[in-house]
Amino acid sequence: MNKIRKGDEVVVIAGRDKGRRGTVTKLLTDRVVVENINMIKRHTKPNPQKNNPGGIVQREASIHISNVMLWNALANKGDRIGFKALADGRKVRFFKSNNEVVDR
What we know:
mainly beta; SH3 type barrels; 6-stranded antiparallel β-sheet; two-stranded antiparallel sheet; 0% helix
């Protein structure tokens, strides 16, 4: 079970986008892609078969998972994550600062 999942709101804690928030759009092995964070310019060739005109395309690059923290809306800051089992046997994530359960 991963501490960060697709669809989570995260805050960047290191790098040139430090302090910016966004939603995780893709989860790789040890990296995440966050919308509108770590934007790069990619020079692409035209591909008429895929109807791609080519040129300079701006897109998101991945960030190492250790450089993002899950956003805690109640505390209004990034927070560490822990795991615990509920009484009904489900394993859920919770914020370490206020023991609030992330998963419903």
